[in-house]
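Field reference: sequence -> structure
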Amino acid sequence: MSADASPRLGDGEADGDDAKVRRLPWALLSAALGSVYGNLGAVLVLYYDELGLPKTHIGLLNALIFLPGPLALFVAPLAARWGFKRTYLTFYSTRKVVFALLAASPFVLHQTGLVGVMVFTAAVMGTFGVLRVIAETALYPWAYEFVPRRVRGQFSAINNIVSTVFGLGVVAWMGHFLSEGADLQAYQVLVLLAASFGLLSVLVKMPIRGGEPQPESVSQRAHFSLLREALRDAPFRRFLWGLVIISLATHAWGAFIPLYLKDEVGLDAGTIVQMQTFLLIGTLVSSYAWGWLADRFSGRLVLLSGVLAMGVLPLIWVAMPRHSELGIFWAAVAAALWGVGSIGFSIGQDRQLNVDLVPAKKKTEYMALFYTWTQIAAVVSPLLTGWGLDQVGALRTELFGFPVGPYTPFFAFSFVGIVAGALVFWRAERA
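Structure field:
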């Protein structure tokens, strides 16, 4: 390890790689429980729709999760002094409790009407977003410590396989549960279950080492000086721009593709939830191959391959048959390809960021910038999409025999953004 890459005191490097690897099963257990939380929570967009919230507000709620992202620039040195591990455990645990408050939305709707529940859900998700930013600002540098570089690709792959297996079980159960009645009470049960598993997923990380307080960490002024220095790192800067473009193009998919399948393709809530099964299968069958390729060749190769796979998705969605059995088939194909492409992108991104681009000595500043840039894009994407869908809601025509509706401009934007992001990533490599 070069002098420039040597860690500061307190980086958790006292443990050798073997000791770190022995504690990674706790991280895998956390991922498994977190997958239960995430897949149960994935019904939020259908829950919001059942509450009668307009698409613009649904876009706002999704954006509020990421809107506080720039706080990471200010939180990072404070989290280093207090301890990355302690910061993560404290704020992520509180976040799950706040998430559970969404179960009260039908009561608020009954008492105060649509405007009242819009204010309530915005307040909950805004608070949720602030807690998330603080916790994840600490998580990235902590994970940089506790996952050895030599197994990062394999760990990411196994982590995703474990998450996917648990996710498949949850989605199968959830599809059956919602098929018996997708009403507000059913969604309330899922929200409370999600919060419970989410809290457990945080607590089981407690045995993992690293993330200790760093009382010698830099001052705020020196921290911002180091941030400016990191932005002058051309390969890292291009990498960030690539992430921003891809996030703008794809981040709204999770919020609005379920509504597209419901409104335009004609699938019911239970079938839409089952599409998550195919997404998880795509993730499961490709994860280990992506991880092996990332460690054997490069994260950049895997990242670009994942991006190209994702680029096919808008073409499938825009041409998908409406209100027919073929629509279900193509929705399943798209979901599986989504799983393959997104996990390839995720594993490649993780490997390139942590192994190829971020110096260990400067991980706090580099990770804060990485987090902030991606969060800003994640805010704009659902807001822009929700507003756009409300503006073109009456669009109904045909082009070369294909139906053109309110989601068509969204898919065109996604495709162009993915191509542009791939071109930027192509140049994000150190000499």
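Note: The chain has 17 helices and two strands.
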